[in-house]
Amino acid sequence: MFAFFSFFILAFLVLLSVLLLFAWSGTKDKVYAKIVAYFWLGLFILFILGQITHWFTAKKELQKDDYYGEYIIDRNYFSGKQADWQYESFRFEIKENDSIYFYVTDKEKILKTFPGRISTVKPWSSERLKIKMKQPTHHIMASDPTIFRSAWSFHLVFYSPKFYNVYFKKGKWKPIEK
Hints:
Strand content: 25-35%
Structural class: alpha+beta
Largest sheet: 8 strands, antiparallel
Radius of gyration: 27 Å
Number of strands: 8
Distance between the termini: 59 Å
Strand order of the largest sheet: 5-4-3-2-1-8-7-6
C-alpha cells in the first residue's frame, strides 16, 4: 500500500513538473523553470538530510562477528561502589571459535573461569546472542542477555537474581583510577 502511495505521489510530482516546464516553454517566463528547479533541489536536499538522519539514528544491525571480543561492566549506567565492585569482579570474553569464558576476578587476577559456547539466532534484521554454559555456572550467565543497540554500539544486559540487571559493554579491562 505504501509503495503504491509513494509511486502515486512521485508520478504526480513528475507530471506537475512537466506541466510547469511546458508553461515555461510556452511563455518563456523563467519563473516556471525556477519553480521546478527549486522544487526538485528542495526534494533532493530533503532526501540527503533524511539519509544523514537515518545514518545517525538507525540501530546497529548485529552479526555474529560483532559479538566477538572482551566485555566489561559498564559503570556508566549505575555509578558508585557497587558498579566499581562489579567491574573489578566480573568480565567475559567471546572468542572467534564461538567459545565464551566468564571470569570471576579480583581486579586483574582471574579467580574462576566459567566456560561455555555461543550461537546466534536471527528472528529479525539483527542477530541475537544465545549462550550455553557448562553447568553449574555463575548466576549472571544463567540466561541469555537482552541486547540494547544504538547507532554505533550495543550493550549486553544479563539478569542476575542477586544483582538484577548487569550491564556489559565491549572493552578492555583497566584498573579503576581513584
